[in-house]
Amino acid sequence: MKKGIHPEFVKTTITCHCGNVMETMSTKENIKVEICSKCHPFYTGKQKLV
């Protein structure tokens, strides 16, 4: 692979609107999402308007 053309792979914090925080690796440092597996009706089994 050529040096200097690939994006840097960094530790990433993903923050959901419900307050759930997850850490992973990505080319972006921080990602904010509106819905995750902790608050999505499919995973929680609770019916709510998304």
Would you mind describing this structure in some detail?
The chain is mainly beta and 50 residues long. The protein has a single domain (10-44), classed as Rhinovirus 14, subunit 4 (Irregular). Helix content is 8%, strand content 34%. The protein has one helix spanning 41-44; strands spanning 10-16, 21-26, 30-33. It is elongated. The termini are far apart. The mean pLDDT is 89.
Anisotropy-based shape = elongated
Give the CATH topology. Answer: Rhinovirus 14, subunit 4
Total tally of structural domains? 1
Rg from Cα: 15 Å
Query: What letter string, H or E per element, gives the SSE order?
Result: EEEH
Mean pLDDT figure: 89
Question: Helices and strands: which structural class?
Answer: mainly beta
Oligomer: single chain
Q: Which CATH architecture is right? A: Irregular
Draw up the topology in text.
Layout: E1 10-16, E2 21-26, E3 30-33, H1 41-44
Parallel strand pairs: 1-3
Antiparallel strand pairs: 1-2
Q: Short summary of the structure?
A:
By secondary structure, the chain is mainly beta.
Question: Which key phrases capture this entry?
Answer:
single chain; 50 residues; Rhinovirus 14, subunit 4; 3-stranded mixed beta sheet; 8% helix
